Amino acid sequence: MSAHQTALVLFSGGQDSAVCLAHALTHYARVETLGFDYGQTHKIELNCRANLRQHMLTLNPDWADKLGDDHTLSLPALAEIGGTALIGDGEITMLDNDLPSTFVPGRNLLFLTYGAALAYRRGLHVLIGGMCETDFSGYPDCRRDTLDALQLALEKGMQSDITIETPLMYIDKAATWALADRLGGPDLVELIIEESHTCYRGDRSQRHDWGYGCGDCPACDLRQAGFEKWKNA
Ligand code: ZN
């Protein structure tokens, strides 16, 4: 097995990261996962990780053979910096700079840098993340040109040929559901509905066709709209 067939998936327990894990298990020979605990409001998403991983193994024996260790890193400094609706208890609004108040400045840059450091230690060469520049959020650290610049910095700074792969970058949420269906069929779609978590408010008390959530935060709106667009396509 070539080192270039090995991947580390940034795996939060959300819908996008579940599809990224299925993508990795389809295309790579050895796959490990990484989650971050940064005091986020919805710790519930972290609790979904274990269930998703466990059930993913039962979907496909080939996937079970490929899936290796799970890692979690604690990044409490993000909560110390604070000032975001995802970490504090602030309302979710649009700010003057056209970014939602859920934006955590530099978060993806930190995640990918820690991910690259772990990948280096683990002998993994491809970092896979669910960043996407197609949908509403417009987070500047989700854009491909940002990640290209970071990849260059990581390659130089770690003297290692690390690659950042973003299978969801140019597709919308409807296409993400379609991709899940292509990679893992109806069983994977069902697993993502039941066990993945996206809601910014961390609500798992309400079950909808598209999964659990409050039903009216931006993340739920996006997940619902994408699911309905895919279902009706
Ligand atoms: Zn919600």
What does it look like?
This protein has about 230 residues and is of the alpha/beta class. The protein has eight helices and seven strands. The strands form two sheets. The protein has a five-stranded parallel β-sheet with strand order 3-2-1-4-5, sandwiched between helices. A two-stranded antiparallel ribbon has the order 6-7. The protein has helices at about 15-25, 45-60, 60-65, 75-80, 105-120, 145-160, 175-195, 220-230, and strands at about 5-10, 30-35, 65-75, 125-130, 165, 205-210, 210. The protein has a single domain (about 5-230), classed as 3-Layer(aba) Sandwich (Rossmann fold), CATH 3.40.50.620. Helix content is about 45%, strand content about 15%. The radius of gyration is 17 Å and the shape is globular. Bound molecules: zinc ion (ZN).
Notable traits:
8 helices, alpha/beta, binds zinc ion, Rossmann fold, 5-stranded parallel β-sheet, 233 residues, two-stranded antiparallel ribbon
